[in-house]
User: What shape does this take?
Amino acid sequence: MMTKRLKKNHAMLVVIDFQEKLMPAMYDRNDVEEKTARMIRGAKALGLPVVVTQQYTRGLGETVPVVAEALGEYEPIDKVTFSCCGNEEFLAAVNKAKTEGRNAVIITGCETHICVEQTALDLLEMGFDVFLAADCVQSRTRENREISLRRMEKAGIVVSSYESMLYDMLESAKAPEFKAISAIVK
Assistant: This one.
């Protein structure tokens, strides 16, 4: 049975395709980039493993600076399939985390109705608990994003906000990471 709450020792973060040639086409680009950067910094403060993908890097470029800066040192997984699960390197990374007890996958990325949706549905089918940071996903149109969010939620994916997820994993203001998370979200 899928858990509805996030636990920091059971979670990982996936950052999908925030790329230089893709992001200019996204509506409300700056907001989603900034919130994703905050989600990444929060995930790192909580000790979550972070998996980063780039769709056809040669054509769509590198990860945008705001997101890359939050990631720090990272090795993106270059993919050509829309679902990250169609990439062996990605599967190895999430399955490795799963063997370490991390069955909950928090997803951020672009585009919501293509790569994000296909990845989320595939991970759900593979037995992962899937959480979507709705304010950290984007599409070229608001309509495509909204339709996709409804589809994923009906499929059983937990849709929430990055801030709610970070505080869910904190559980208490007495958590050692509380001050760091509080500073990140303000």
Remarks:
- The helical segments are 29-45, 57-60, 65-71, 88-99, 112-125, 142-155, 162-170, 178-185.
- The mean pLDDT is 96.
- Residues 29-45 form the longest helix (17 residues).
